[in-house]
Amino acid sequence: MKSVIRLYARAMKRLSVDAPSPALKQFPTASVFTVAALLAFFAPAIVVTDRALILSACVVMLGATLLAGYFTRLGRVTRWALIVPGFSLLAIALLRAGTGGATSLFSALLILPVLWIASEQGRRWILVAIFGTSASIMLPYLLYWHAPETQSEWFRGVFGPLVYGVVAAIVNELSRQGRKQMWSITRLAEEREGMLRETLSFAGKLQENELSLHAAHRLTRSVLDAVTEQSVIGTDLTGLIDVWNPGAAVMLGLAADETQGKRYVFEFHDSHELEDRSRELNYPPGATVLNPGFSALVESARLGRAEVRDWTYRRHDGSELSVNVAVTPRVDEEGATIGYIFVATDVTQALEVARLKDEFVGLISHELRTPLSSILGYLELMRDDDESPLSDEQLMYLGVAERNAHRLLRLVGDLLFTAQVASGKFPLDVGTVALSDVVTAAVQSARPVATAAGIELLIELPGEPVVVRGDSVRLGQACDNLISNAVKFTPRGGTVTVALGSTAEDAIVSVRDTGMGIPASELDQLYARFFRASTATRNAVPGVGLGLTITKAIVTAHEGELDVESQEGVGTLFSMSLPLPRKSLLDAA
Amino acid sequence: MVGAVNESVPARVVIADDDPDIRALVAIAVKRAGLELVESAADGTAAWHALQTHRPDLAVLDMSMPGLTGLEVCRLARSDDSLDGIHLVLLTAAVDDQSRAAGADAGADDFFVKPFSPRELALALSALMATDN
Questions:
Q1: What GO molecular function terms would the record report (chain A) (predicted)?
Q2: Among candidates A369, A376, A378 on the partner chain, residue whose Cβ is nearest the Cβ of B93
């Protein structure tokens, strides 16, 4: 007995409750029907009214069961599977008709297909079940084509389906609720699975982020470590150091662990310089909550701008160091300043080089000009000697010597000037300049040379004066250079036209020649020191290549622009545009 | 007495430059200006010594000399009461405006940039000394 119960329990456990296959659903019906058919054939107590009907019932049931097998093998859920219980109902009805109709022992079998039909989703299947049972019960009357004879037969046809209907309704409802529960359980399971998946992917992302964070940190670290010639110091808002690269360690003589979180950046600055700067910035007393020196140090960075300035660092051992420091703000994700970065370059050497350069320029100036002074001075004495006047021939020789001495002198002057430009020491004596006068003077001074070279020198001036702010001597020099260049580079019979004009914003001096021109490929090198166009060297035009460098520097210092257009063999046009002062400025001047 | 020049007695002049040719050139200009050259010094220290010894009416000094520079000699001369009224002229090879300003600050009366014309220097010196009369 126990083993039977165990067998039963094991079989039941294998039932798939939520989606039983059509074969599984058909199994109880087919089994009990087989028992009933065996009884009908072999039990003598069973009344058999029509053997052929029983045989046909068996055939229909076999068909229904095979169909159930087919639908199971089909593997997907379909409403068409419901024809299986339909045929079962038919088979049972036939069996019932063959075993005495209303008096048949096997009417109870009907409940099994009804259970299947009623458990389908949707309340209409209750009606289908009622109709099915009703049809089964009434089948004998249909077969023999006569109406029920007694009232009790009528009642059987109605009452039986009523009972089956109630059972079907209950089963339908129970399966509906079952399905509902199953659905919510499935749903819950899916939800939990989704959440789990999400958690896992989040964890993955987290790990990825951590990896890239580490990589970014390593990159920052290696960049900082690679900067060995500059010191990179990071601080918080109060100046407390939290970044100290190897460059800083070399430059200032302290290791990172001796400064980070322990020292303030301004401790490494010359305190007098910081005081001077804060005085310069004119902080009212008590206006800065921070160390005033530190405030002075980060003044521009605090306002969100980078600042580059020369300072003096004081090393750990007390020695000093000239540095050029770029200060930039450090910001967080929201853009709020959370500290500062100081990148310092040792400029001791650069300052020394600049000093040597200045010294050299001074030396050259003195050493070249002194002999020239003697040459020119004594040549003049010779010319002025009234007691023994020179012959015309001698005077001509003297003129050549003088001219060349002056040429040397101009060259020395140009060299000095370009050196001044290169070192940024380029003083302008700014005043109000009438450009018409400057241009006229430049043309006049170039006229003898132009005439001697057989070149027509034209000047075009506007009706009203053109006035700019600038250094009249330097502007004159710029005009001289452009005009003498044009004359130098124009062959005999050519024309040089000097024109002064103005637009709404600029005064424009243009010098046009009909000379040999400048190859297009050389135009952008034109302003480089000692550059000479190939046309110049080819045609043996004298010069060292400083004139345009100087002219460009003068124009730039006046915030103007120097443009050139040239066509080889046709000529060149240089235009110098100088900004016109605003009316108010002129009035003030 | 220093500075007291009358027509019969020419003004006395000390010149100083480390370049002998320039020195000679300046000496010629001084003579052409009708002035009397009392000493020609080759460096700043000698120039200052000459000023103290001769107490001349005029000194023509090169700005860059060994020993004392022309500027330093100027300053010393201006701070020395015994040289009250002396005229000081500086010569320089420098072309920048700063040296001119420095010369004026040191108390120089005039300033010549090398190369200078001996003719113009002579004219300027005689004009300068003429103001004393």
A1: phosphorelay sensor kinase activity
A2: A369
CATH topology agreement for domains A227-346 and A431-588: no
* Residue A458 β-bridge partners: A497
Across B34-73, b (16+ Cβ under 10 Å) vs e yields ebebbbbbbbbbbbbbbbeeebbbbbbbbbbbebbbbbbb
Nearest to A368 by CA among B7, B93, B68: B93
Please state, rounded to an integer, the average pLDDT across all residues of chain A.
85
Q: State pLDDT tens for residues B50-92.
A: 999 999 999 999 988 888 889 999 999 999 888 888 999 999 8
- Mark which residues 488-527 of A lie under 8 Å from B by CB: none
Q: Tell me: domain A431-588, CATH 3.30.565.10, correct?
A: yes
Q: What is the pLDDT of residue B3?
A: 44
Q: Does domain A227-346 sit in CATH 3.30.450.20?
A: yes
Domain B12-130 has CATH 3.60.21.10: no
Report the residue from B25, B95, B119 with minimal CB separation from A378. B25
The string of DSSP letters for A261-322 reads TT-BGGGGB-HHHHHHHHHHHTPPTT--SS-HHHHHHTHHHHTT--EEEEEEEE-TTS-EEE
A583 pLDDT band (50/70/90 cuts)? Answer: low
ipTM: 0.87
For residue A384, the chain B residues in CB contact (below 8 A) are: 118-119
**Segments making up each domain of chain A, as ranges:** 2-193, 227-346, 357-422, 431-588
Q: Note the pLDDT tens digit of each residue in A227-262.
A: 888 899 999 988 899 999 999 998 999 998 999 999
Enumerate the domain spans of chain B: 12-130
Can you tell me the distance from the alpha carbon of A488 to that of A539, in angstroms, rounded to the nearest whole number? 10
**pTM value surpassing 0.80:** no
Looking at residue A349, what is its pLDDT? 85
Residues A522, A525, A528, A533: what is their CA dihedral angle, to the nearest 10 degrees? 0
